[in-house]
């Protein structure tokens, strides 16, 4: 009877096995019953996790929450004596799986870390805590968990329940290796990530032996997707995108491949193309949570805050376990928060302008108002030592900005302090025509950009500028600008500038850009020649 009941408990019938064991206290000891009860909770946890993975409705966590409640209650009842140590460890492993599936990643980590080192831990629990560490942005600990799970995957478990149906769909070796791959890339350990890819490829069956119905088809697709992402991570963006394009041609409706393409474009600055790809993928996969989260991140970067807010509201608290949703929600929370921006500049030795100079520019923005509006307070402070005297300048201002898609507008009322203080205003308009070209125009009636010696001479100035900017991903950019300034001593300054940046070397952890700046300026009171700078 013991054999029959334990076989039933380890093959998916733990709830029935527990009833039979409790009915025969003469055959089953309290420890036996505790083991079977733990197996019944494990069965419910796995069933609840399967429901979470299969559903997208608000009730997807009902079964899992019930299982967690029963596990917590059982944990309180378990004796702390040594003979129950393995039962407690097994229960903690199952609770780790449940918490991770529920999106309670801190609870998953805290529960896992109570398991003694010498205790046997299931691959499922190690995979779950690896996911939790990755979610919490602790890739070094995720690496340890995935590595341990991979090593354990090759061993035959002593826990018979892991061989049956207790875990539902088992975590496969390629799942663990994919988690380890991302743990390595998150730590910039690209040589180790490359080795993981080699291990995946080595274990794939020969392509000519793969049938259309084999799981290896999906494994091959996953391998080539990870390989393309690896190439993008190490700077071989063109090769990576080409690999994803070839993969898309083979599996044109794969949401994973199309999302990887869109993610790469989003990361390289092709925000509108990424948005269009996410939108197209949602047409074919309207239930893809990762695609919707990607569209939300693209909308934030495009300052399409209305769309981002609707996506945020649609997610609500339905997908707390999904890392893509978490990334979007984190970005959205940052957008909703007030913003403090401080820029500090210092220079020594440019005696034409000042022997020493220091300035700080501080902006404090409010949280968004009706998505697109913010108000801000602005303080500029600068000090300089020159051969004709020392000078300090302070200008404060309040203003607001409006951001909606390609259009950004900023306006500010200002007041400079001191005996030469003035009341003024400034404004700027930026419009992005596409991912590559944008234009900016601005005016300032009390400019902070005059040479410091001009402020020593009690001069002030008005300025206006226009710039046309070009950006081709993150590898090259350029701009051409024209600015004009009228000083209070009747001097009229004009400047034309041309600048460009080109990526000339890219490796996994190094980037080298070449920047050229050319400008020519003229003054009605003193002429200036051509200036060239190489950075």
TrEMBL record:
* Stored SUPFAM superfamilies: TPR-like (SSF48452)
Q: Per its UniProt entry, which superkingdom is the organism in?
A: Bacteria
Instruction: Show where the PgaA membrane beta barrel domain sits.
Output: 350-527
Protein name, UniProt field: Tetratricopeptide repeat protein
Report the source organism. Answer: Paraburkholderia denitrificans
């Amino acid at each position: 009877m013991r054999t029959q009941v334990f076989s039933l408990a380890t093959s998916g019938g733990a709830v029935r096995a527990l009833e039979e064991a409790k009915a025969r206290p003469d055959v089953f000891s309290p420890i036996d019953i505790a083991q079977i009860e733990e197996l019944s909770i494990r069965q419910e946890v796995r069933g609840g996790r399967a429901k979470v993975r299969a559903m997208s409705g608000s009730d997807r966590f009902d079964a899992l929450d019930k299982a967690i409640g029963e596990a917590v209650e059982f944990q309180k009842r378990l004796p702390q004596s040594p003979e129950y140590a393995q039962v407690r460890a097994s229960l903690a492993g199952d609770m780790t799986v449940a918490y991770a599936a529920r999106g309670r990643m801190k609870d998953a980590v805290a529960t896992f870390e109570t398991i003694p080192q010498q205790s046997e831990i299931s691959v499922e629990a190690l995979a779950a805590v690896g996911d939790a560490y990755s979610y919490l942005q602790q890739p070094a600990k995720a690496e340890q968990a995935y590595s341990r799970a991979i090593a354990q995957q090759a061993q035959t478990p002593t826990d018979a329940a892991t061989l049956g149906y207790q875990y539902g769909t088992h975590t496969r070796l390629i799942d663990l290796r994919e988690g380890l791959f991302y743990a390595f890339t998150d730590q910039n350990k690209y040589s180790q990530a490359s080795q993981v890819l080699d291990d995946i490829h080595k274990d794939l069956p020969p392509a000519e032996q793969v049938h259309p119905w084999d799981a290896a088809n999906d494994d091959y697709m996953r391998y080539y997707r990870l390989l393309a992402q690896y190439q993008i991570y190490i700077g071989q963006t063109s090769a990576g995108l080409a690999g994803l394009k070839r993969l898309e041609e083979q599996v044109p409706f794969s949401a994973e491949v199309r999302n990887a393409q869109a993610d790469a474009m989003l990361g390289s600055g092709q925000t509108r193309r990424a948005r269009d790809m996410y939108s197209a993928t949602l047409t074919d996969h309207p239930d893809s949570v990762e695609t919707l989260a990607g569209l939300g991140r693209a909308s934030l970067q495009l300052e399409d805050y209305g769309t981002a807010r609707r996506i945020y509201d649609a997610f609500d608290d339905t997908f707390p376990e999904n890392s893509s949703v978490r990334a979007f929600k984190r970005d959205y929370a940052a957008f909703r928060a007030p913003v403090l921006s401080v820029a500090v500049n210092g220079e020594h030795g440019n005696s034409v302008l000042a022997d020493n100079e220091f300035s700080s520019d501080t902006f404090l923005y409010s949280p968004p108002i009706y998505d697109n509006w913010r108000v801000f307070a602005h303080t500029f402070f600068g000090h300089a030592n020159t051969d004709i005297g020392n000078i300090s300048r302070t200008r404060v201002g309040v203003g607001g900005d409006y951001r909606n898609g390609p259009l950004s507008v900023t306006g500010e009322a200002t007041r400079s302090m001191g005996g030469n203080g003035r009341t003024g205003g400034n404004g700027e308009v930026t419009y992005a025509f596409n991912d590559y070209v944008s234009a900016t125009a601005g005016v300032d009636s009390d400019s902070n950009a005059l040479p410091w010696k001009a402020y020593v001479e009690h001069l002030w100035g008005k300025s206006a500028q226009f710039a046309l900017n070009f950006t081709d991903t993150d590898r090259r950019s350029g701009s051409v600008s024209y600015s004009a300034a009228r000083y209070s001593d009747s001097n009229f300054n004009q400047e034309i500038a041309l600048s460009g940046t080109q990526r000339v070397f890219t490796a996994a952890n190094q980037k080298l850009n070449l920047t050229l700046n050319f400008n020519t300026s003229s003054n009605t009171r003193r002429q200036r020649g051509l200036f060239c700078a190489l950075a």
